[in-house]
Design goal:
Immunoglobulin-like, 5-stranded mixed sheet, 12% helix, binds ligand MTE, 3 domains, binds cobalt (II) ion, 416 residues, 29% strand, 7 helices
Length: 416
């Protein structure tokens, strides 16, 4: 059964009600396996190679899974599952844990029958097989993909108890594919072309208009993620990669690219994926995902079990380039300290940050604030609401607050 945020909150309340002090997990193992004894796993031969021809995580990690929120959507075919950010580290999302967002279920495509069409304002309309795509010069790029609706439930106040649910519509993997500019050059872009229509082969036929300048800049037609072929749920056998832009334009199961001189005003860029502003007007084509960050640990699904030296960890990303700096606050934004960015800090990819502290059991209001290389500073939720109102769904990049309580439990809250 999927564990919903509600069931978690109930359990946490029970723990607190029972007066549990610091929720240090009791030793649940077998004392016979502890030093100085020789443990079970040393007394017997282990499994041989290729017992599992495709490797799986340890059975002890079975809780590290995508989860969904069942009341959020009416059907599972047009729905979303969330990345368990609180269980991960570094910047690469394991393929099997990448959140999924489909509007018409997962298209099951036989790679033999796969075709990609380029037509419209081109000199030479073309149809590519998957084998054709793989023969073109290729590149590898690590990028985040964030759904425009990530944190969309939080506009009117703290809703969901866990960064998996508040921020888990983001993943970051390495893509292998052909630069879209190479394919478009092959077809020959006519001088009056300004826009590109991308269409998916799924039952939703996801269709979006993308400015040609972006298509020629850094987009890819990708067929691999993290080295292996795309997973079915991520668009097998080919998807569009649109670095830094809202996830919706990263069309999966890509079947058609059409060049034109104006946008097509498809359903997903008129009735959906527009931002209803405070004035009552809707803002259209908000493509770029602004800088955002979240503390992944501690967080409601990753409470603190021990006092003393504590590593606060999180992710920051920006659709406008690299992350320059992340600040962390322990007191709801009154005082800030600079976090350490660790590992690769890449263009339009997530960056991992750490901040160390001595936790003595005091209440903390944890926040993180991302600053990108353009100098853009992640706003507070209130600053965002002043411009955007509360009728929006998409593009909520406000600063997240976690309340760490003396018992180590963590709750999604807001400070004003
Ligand atoms: N492409 C097609 N063909 N159909 C879809 O439903 N969903 C879009 C986009 N591309 C979608 C699609 C949305 S809203 C998002 S956020 C991303 O795919 C999600 O990509 P993921 O499932 O790899 O996380
Ligand atoms: Co989306």
């Amino acid at each position: 059964m999927d564990e919903t945020p509600e069931t978690r909150t109930t359990r946490r309340r029970l723990l607190t009600a029972a007066g549990a002090a610091l929720a240090t997990p009791a030793f649940a193992g077998n004392p016979k396996n502890l030093p100085p004894n020789v443990p079970d796993w040393t007394r017997q031969l282990g499994d041989g190679v290729a017992v599992r021809p495709y490797g799986q995580p340890s059975k002890h990690e079975a809780h590290v899974i995508r989860r969904d929120v069942q009341w959020l959507t009416a059907s599972r075919e047009s729905s979303v599952s969330f990345t368990p950010l609180h269980e991960l580290d570094g910047i690469i999302t394991p393929s099997g844990l990448c959140f999924e967002r489909h509007h018409g279920g997962i298209a099951e495509i036989d790679p033999e029958d796969y075709r990609l069409i380029i037509h419209g304002l081109v000199e030479k309309p073309l149809i590519f097989t998957l084998a054709d795509l793989k023969r073109f010069p290729r590149v590898n790029r690590i990028h985040f993909l964030e759904c425009a609706a990530n944190s969309g439930m939080e506009w009117r106040g703290a809703q969901l108890n866990g960064c998996q649910y508040t921020h888990g519509m983001v993943h970051c993997v390495e893509y292998t594919g052909v630069p879209l500019s190479v394919l478009l050059k092959e077809a020959g872009v006519k001088p009056n072309a300004r826009w590109l229509l991308a269409e998916g082969a799924d039952s939703a036929a996801m269709t979006r208009s993308i400015p040609l300048a972006k298509a020629l800049d850094d987009c890819l037609v990708a067929y691999r993620m993290n080295g292996e072929m795309l997973r079915p749920e991520q668009g097998y056998p080919a998807r569009l990669v649109v670095p830094g832009w809202e996830g919706n334009v990263w069309v999966k199961w890509l079947r058609r690219l059409k060049l034109g001189d104006e946008p097509w005003f498809a359903r997903e860029e008129t009735s959906k994926y527009t931002d209803l502003m405070e004035s009552g007007k809707a803002r259209q084509f908000t493509f770029v995902m602004d800088a955002k960050s979240v503390i992944t640990s501690p967080s409601p699904q990753a409470p603190l079990h021990q006092k003393g030296f504590t590593v606060i960890s999180g992710l920051a990303w920006s659709g406008r380039g690299k992350i320059r700096r992340v600040d962390v606050s322990l007191d709801g934004g009154r005082n800030w300290r600079e976090a350490t960015l660790d590992g690769l800090v890449l263009d339009k990819a997530v960056s991992r940050f750490y901040a160390e502290t001595e936790w003595t059991g005091q209440e903390m209001l944890l926040q993180s604030r991302a600053i990108d290389e353009t100098g853009y500073v992640q706003p507070t939720k209130d600053e965002l609401r002043k411009i955007r109102g509360v009728s929006s769904i998409y593009h909520n990049n406000g600063i997240q607050t976690w309340l760490v309580k003396p018992d180590g439990e963590v709750e999604n809250v807001e400070v004003s």
